[in-house]
Protein: TIGR02646 family protein
Amino acid sequence: MVKIERSKPAPKSLQIAKKKGKGSYRREDVIDRLREDFHDKCYLCETKGLQDPEVEHRLPHQNGKNLKRKYDWNNLFWSCGHCNNVKNKYYYSKNIIDCCKVDPEELLVFVAADESIQIEPVNKKKRSAKVTADLLNDVYNLTNTGIRLAACDNRVKGVFIQMNLLFNAINNYIDDSSNKDYEDTLKALLSRESEYAAFKRSYIRENKDLYPDVYGLIDEE
Ligand SMILES: [Zn+2]
Structure:
């Protein structure tokens, strides 16, 4: 999960549906804007290029009973079916970090090591950090059904592919930091737009004493 800059104003079709109090919240203009704003990545698991993307309501609209939430542009998020499904329980119906307003990387540490994935809140007493960490841990590690096991497995594999690309890129860059291609490759792997970016950026942040120059390539804003 990384910070997202949500474009403004709300897509036209959504403004119209909101005014009428009926209609679809996932017309083409909404889909196009979400895909673009979220860099074509699920906002929860950060899987890129989704085959079956879904428009997720961070705050549930209770089967359309809550029209304000249903048509609120700020409540719509680009998600994969797996994450939408895992999030669908009461405990996750509130307190999930709004990554368009708050930077999740300031509240969470993303660890991918020893073939396992763990998301930790920086401050356990902060409710939104705790609940979001629980959700993300479920997204990568929940294995209570066959389908979920396969979905988690794919995501964990994807994270480690990106981590290995990062380690290779770091080695190349350390060998020859004057090589602009090496620097660009590393920058791209560490950009918020890249797949599973939170894990790669968190690793560098946690090891900034080891890699001060690489740390300098992260765009922290
Ligand atoms: Zn996802």
Notes: The chain has a mean pLDDT of 95. The chain has one domain: 12-215. The first helix runs from residue 12 to 20. The longest strand covers residues 108-113.
